[in-house]
Amino acid sequence: MATTVNAVALDESPIPEHVAATGKQTVDPYNVSGEVGEDGVMKAIDYSKLVDEFGTKRIDKALLERFEKVTGKKPHRFLRRGIVFSHRDFELILDRYERGEPFFLYTGRGPSSDSVHVGHTIPFEFTKWLQDTFDLVIMLTDDEKYLFSEKRTVEEVQGYCSSNAKDIIAIGFDPAKTFIFSDFDYVGGAFYRNIVRLSKHITLNQARAIFGFNDSSNIGKIHFGSIQGATSWASSFPHIFGTDEKKSNAIPALIPCAIDQDPYFRMTRDVSARLHFAKPSLIHAKFLDALQGPGTKMSASIDESAIFMKDTPNQIKNKINKYAFSGGKVSVEEHREKGGDTTVDVSFQYLRFFLEDDAELERIRLEYESGKLLTGELKAICIQELQKYVAAFQERRAQVSDETVDLFMERRALRWVGNPQAPRVVPVVEAAAEATGDGKLTKNQLKKLEKQKQIEAKKAQKAKEKEGGQAAGEAAAE
Ligand code: TRP
């Protein structure tokens, strides 16, 4: 049993020996599986342990309250329900937002197949929601999916890029604020310079310790982290953030991602600090369980493990009814008496992800746990919600053409809105310190900064006067 569940949990990589041998929980970019108990059954992923092991911070009530205060937005249901549960330096992003300073969103997807499932849409749904406020860069790591698979060809992964881009666009991103790129197409120029900067600061020993590589790992895998990492730096995108690296290197990314991606960015944050580039902030999501239950992750290559965004209403119904792991009791009598376990019930877990109404969700929980609601009834509610979610997606997906993809993937400037409550601030030139190597500004640099500030102030003053002049009529201004 443990092995079958494991196969579902993994997207493509074989089960690493240490997991098979120790049965320990493993969460890294290439493997996600819960601990295998003595009975051979996989347990749910212990996210609390991950926060401690990775050294991230829990998203708590105080942070959510601050979020709402600063942005004026009610936190997304993923935040309210602890699905987006952990972060690194998210509060610094809120500080910047409050001060009107720029930052950008960065997320990505490895195009491993044409079939996107509901689990894949979770970080994108969340990112789309955040985008109402921020600029966005989306990376398609076709190179990664080639390097990390025995079978796939370059042509194959490149082929998935366009259909995956369409799926991502169908989530509802704003073309004026979104740049999507494929690594195979975009590596070069400013981006490649940053990739090499990052790679120079990572030793083979570190890559092994962070990602678990060994002597047989191909060297492309070992290097790949510098590509995923360098996307966190705004100076990799001169068409969006300008060619003055002193300015762009001071603009941080906020990276919404599933928690398994954290190792890439832990590494990137370390190197950012050494280069005096802005460190990326992170906000981490949990995984959507596979239909088979806790501890597993939906897999694009195993049809029975997931609800796919291409599935028909009937397929959704059949999959939930047939495969969705139930927390209900064996007989109706026992269920009525003892109630179901919502913490392991897949249908209930899916409702936590997709049902917007908090009060309704709470009602369902209480009724299922008290035995009033039966498994079949709970499944029916879940089926309905998923059918709605998938149908709405399919409607938007049908509108996305090849031209739409070209539009999103064109190198161009994006519209930056920022915080409407705060005046727009020119990025601070923190990265100027790179030359000194120790992070402190030299006297000369401080002088320069001071001078620059004065010039900016004068400029602003002039612009104000000019505006006033124009308002008074152009003839009068001349
Ligand atoms: N490595 C991710 C994957 O396999 C893709 C990815 C690249 C990503 N950059 C990212 C995911 C940033 C989240 C955030 O799918």
Automatic annotation (TrEMBL):
InterPro entries: aa-tRNA-synth_I_CS (IPR001412), aa-tRNA-synth_Ic (IPR002305), Rossmann-like_a/b/a_fold (IPR014729), Trp-tRNA-ligase (IPR002306). One of its GO terms (cellular component) is cytoplasm. Residues 453-468 have a biased composition (Basic and acidic residues). Its EC number is 6.1.1.2. GO terms for biological process: tryptophanyl-tRNA aminoacylation. PROSITE patterns: AA_TRNA_LIGASE_I. Keywords: Aminoacyl-tRNA synthetase, ATP-binding, Cytoplasm, Ligase, Nucleotide-binding, Protein biosynthesis. GO terms for molecular function: ATP binding; tryptophan-tRNA ligase activity. It is found in: Cytoplasm. Pfam families: tRNA-synt_1b. The keyword Membrane does not apply. Residues 453-478 are annotated as: Disordered. SUPFAM superfamilies: Nucleotidylyl transferase (SSF52374). The keyword Protein biosynthesis applies. It comes from the Eukaryota. Belongs to the class-I aminoacyl-tRNA synthetase family. PANTHER family: TRYPTOPHAN--TRNA LIGASE, CYTOPLASMIC (PTHR10055:SF1), TRYPTOPHANYL-TRNA SYNTHETASE (PTHR10055). This is Tryptophan--tRNA ligase, cytoplasmic. It comes from Schizothecium vesticola.
